[in-house]
Design goal:
The chain is 25% helix and 42% strand. It is an alpha+beta fold. The protein has a domain of 65 residues. Strands 1, 2, 3, 4 and 5 form a five-stranded antiparallel beta sheet that branches. The termini are far apart.
């Protein structure tokens, strides 16, 4: 589905030069994206000489002049700023949700680290080596 919007700007009739600009705004819909491109139609008139005669040739070119961008719609409402939701993008994840997931991951790391430290302390307590009565420190102590 392609929608084309055209707008032509002309200079006032009493000016010395006549300015004629033609613009084309192309909006293209593909999958879930809307692509927008801005074009200008440039008319060129060239003088060509073939076999000694002069001839004016009018030539038009389509040149992309504007920014090219892609829009990914999140929600489309029935009204201008609210109303019933007509379309909602199911693949969209808000930046706030992404940040909260990252923070939850860091919180889970903290919980796993503290439980590991507690298990390590318990292991060390249960597997402590008893004091040897025949060690050098106990035999040769003052």
């Amino acid at each position: 589905m392609v929608n084309d919007f055209t707008h032509t700007v002309h200079a006032m009739a009493n000016t010395r030069c006549v300015l004629s600009l033609s613009y084309l705004l192309a909006c293209m819909h593909a999958h879930v994206c809307v692509g927008v491109r801005n074009y200008q139609i440039i008319d060129k008139s060239e003088v060509t000489t073939s076999t000694g005669s002069t001839k004016k040739v009018s030539e038009s070119q389509l040149v992309e002049i504007g920014p090219r961008f892609v829009l990914i719609p999140i929600r489309i409402f029935n009204g201008s700023l609210g109303g019933a939701t007509l379309y909602q993008n199911p693949a969209f994840v808000s930046p706030n949700e992404e940040r909260s997931l990252l923070k939850r991951g860091k919180g889970d790391r903290y919980v796993s680290r503290t439980t590991h430290n507690m298990m390590r302390e318990k292991f060390v307590e249960e597997n402590r080596v008893p004091r040897d009565v025949l060690s050098n420190k106990s035999v040769f102590s003052d």
